[in-house]
Amino acid sequence: MTDEEFERLYGRKPVRAGTRKRVKVYWGRVIIALIVFVLIICGIWQLIRTIYNKFKKDDSSAFVVTSTADTETDSSLGDEQSSVAEDSSSEPDTPQRATWQFKVCIDPGHGGADGGACLYDTDNNLIRAEKDDTLRISLAVKDYLESQGVSVVMTRDTDIMLDDNTIDQDLDNRCTIANDAKSDLFICLHRDSVSKDVSGFECWVHNKKPDMDTMLAQNIMTNLQAVGISNNRGVSYGYTNDHTSNYHVNADVVCPSVLCELGFITSELDNNLFDTNLQAYAKAIGDACIDTAKELGVVDDNGKRVLNEQLISRSKLYYPLESYYSATNPNRRNATTQERTSN
Ligand SMILES: [Zn+2]
User: Fold this and answer.
1) Where in the sequence is the domain holding 159, given as residue range(s)?
2) Residues near 112 by Cβ (< 8 Å), separated by ≥ 6?
3) What is the pLDDT of residues 210-231, one digit of tens each?
4) Any domain includes 95
């Protein structure tokens, strides 16, 4: 059949092999389209993840928001912690660092006109004063605890005495700060001194041997030992060479309290350890506070507060706690004071 006969019969021209028009594939455009498609899918996936994380974060951080109002830890959150919180928003599987919802009062021993134990050279020039060492380590403990979201109260954060007249009143004022702030734990930091060549770290607790205070002291000693100390002199009760009396702060502070002697200022070995390990000791003491708060049920393992009221070491109090907090009680400032002595 000729082409003319075919066209007459079928109304169109016949298609001959080899004359079909080839379809040209533009591979470059296909690849670009695929890339754009993948990018759009990734964008949608990222958007879904962001929305999911936002809802999840709002839900899990509910207790943090309420707690910061109670414990004043909001402003104390360090830069490091803030960045952790930001990072966790893009990584939903990374657990947020806990904010430990309890309050520690830190008391740097001595201050101002009361230098504590002092070290002099042969020309009677002051080399080292206890009041400076106690302030340095106390501020380091404060920084560490606040970086963990713990609320901290300082009895002093500069070189001052808390009363111009007597050391007894100065110590009373320290106890008042701790009690009025409703602290859950109290740590009083000192350096020891002796004329002989003696070294070592120790903690002092009320002579009624209260369980809570003892636990705090033992946790501190365990952690200090782990960092490295010259000699672990352990936990003692009462007052040096007189176990019938107590350090003023251990007698009058109503929450669990410990007085720490962080090595002898008269020992070169202890002074070197103190200077070298200052940050590590601060972390050790801070972690001991967090561990104790967990063990005593003040907070749960995530840092959320469980105890409704202030933590009180009732077994060491001479008078009912209510008498201390009664504003009408004329002996308010000395409600628990009996058989105590100055630091
Ligand atoms: Zn001292």
Assistant:
1) 103-341
2) 131, 159, 160, 161
3) 999 999 999 999 999 999 999 9
4) no
